[in-house]
Fold these 2 entries.
Entry 1:
Amino acid sequence: MRVSTAIPPRDVLRSIVTFSVLLFLASGLAGGSAADGVKKYGSYVRDAAEKHGLDENLIHSIIQVESNYNPEAVSVKGASGLMQLIPETAAHYGVFDIFDPQQNIDAGARYLKELISLYRNNLRFVLAAYNAGPDAVKKHNGVPPFPETVGYVRKVLDLYRKRGGPPGGQLYSYRDGQGKVLLTSDKFYLSLKGGASAER
């Protein structure tokens, strides 16, 4: 007598549905929603933005595209954490634990500030360099024609605009009364900050 080892179609369907649900739940727990991420890591982003004179909405937009607020995210290229730092960049900024949200965000903000200075507030170039590296931006004299990089710049700018960022991808810098340079997308920052004066 031959015993069939085939799985009945109904059981196969049930297994596929169960696996899909578990996979969905696992991915949700790993990254969570953007709203949850903003709530959970917002204080770290706010501190880094204030410390380095950046717009916290820009940092949030980058984090959402880079890792969707998953502090344990690791790319195929080895970029890690919320802001997807490569180990060399993390080491350069003195990060001891690349997966620590506070350290990761602070180092990512410092790197972002350097890129903003390097590209004179041209946010498209800044984001392209954050994704593909400054060498690639230099080689192509602008945003490299890599599908990943072009898509990355578009996604971050779209999110940033939704959070109130500039439609043209340009940042504005101001120097406050203590001489600290502040970077924002808001042309009217001067009137909001009172003691600040436009730097350029």
Entry 2:
Amino acid sequence: MKMVLMAAMGGAVGAGARYLVGVGALRFIGPGFPWGTLIVNVAGSLIMGLLIASFALRYSVSNEVRTFLATGILGGFTTFSAFSLDFAVLMERKAQGLALVYLGASVGLSILALFAGLYLARTLFQ
């Protein structure tokens, strides 16, 4: 239960930060392109890489801290960071084929699922 609470608390921080970045991007860059989403996805992936490498190479941190930062804050900021880490782990394990399947399935199936959800909701609720 403690780990769930750590993830939830971090998730609240990350989601708040994602909202602020989105609002800021809209305000300073303008509409027309999803700059806020792009910024959080790229920044979240960069920060995930820095954290994971730092934890592995230099700092010994507890599972609670890892969960709060990586799963919680970065997961709330962007789930793309977790996807990027999973892809990188497969690539570093020399499982390039599996990594490419994961990449295609994650992106392709997620987009298809979104359209399926839109279709179902429109069909059921109109």
